[in-house]
Amino acid sequence: DAALPSDQGTIVYVGVSDLGETVERAVALGAAVVMRPTSIPDGSAFAIIRDPLGNRLGLWSRRPSHSGVGR
Questions:
Q1: Element (H, E) at 50
Q2: What pLDDT is attached to residue 71?
Q3: Which residues contact 11 (CB under 8 A, 6 or more apart)?
């Protein structure tokens, strides 16, 4: 049996240097935004996208750009 993408299960996060730019690029390549860039109290930020095959991927940045990051 093949594994299928779903809204359940673990989300793998990868570190990126510019969160806003990375989300914009992912959307341009066919991804959908599940959770838009969001600041967290330690000064970093994260977002969650879904690739064209339905897999979720978390993006995290220690120094997010100000573009697209909710405060």
A1: strand 45-50
A2: 44
A3: 48, 56, 57, 58
